[in-house]
What does this fold into?
Amino acid sequence: MLEITSPALTPVADYFKVLSQVSRLQILCVLQSGEKNVTEIIEATGMGQANVSKHLMVLTQAGIVTRQPKGANVFYQITDPIVFELCELVCDRLKIQLQEQSQKLSQLTAMRYF
It folds into this structure.
């Protein structure tokens, strides 16, 4: 059996830390439709320039997005679209959990009337 050690899990934890920030997820959602420059990301998210730049730097350092200078602008794009598959898996799981909670609440509400 393969033993997974803490040092081997550190990069995995670091990757998930990058994805654990709402602002970064917003930026990734904007980039899902294709490459964008900082101004386009700011307009789409409503975040400030310094905030967008900070999060783009983190996403770039993590290898999730790449930056491509084009003239006076720098354009960002998703490096590996698997990030959206991960988000979809999490969203699907959360949906199931919410449905289960809703069913339990419905059962409790129905019991209240007996």
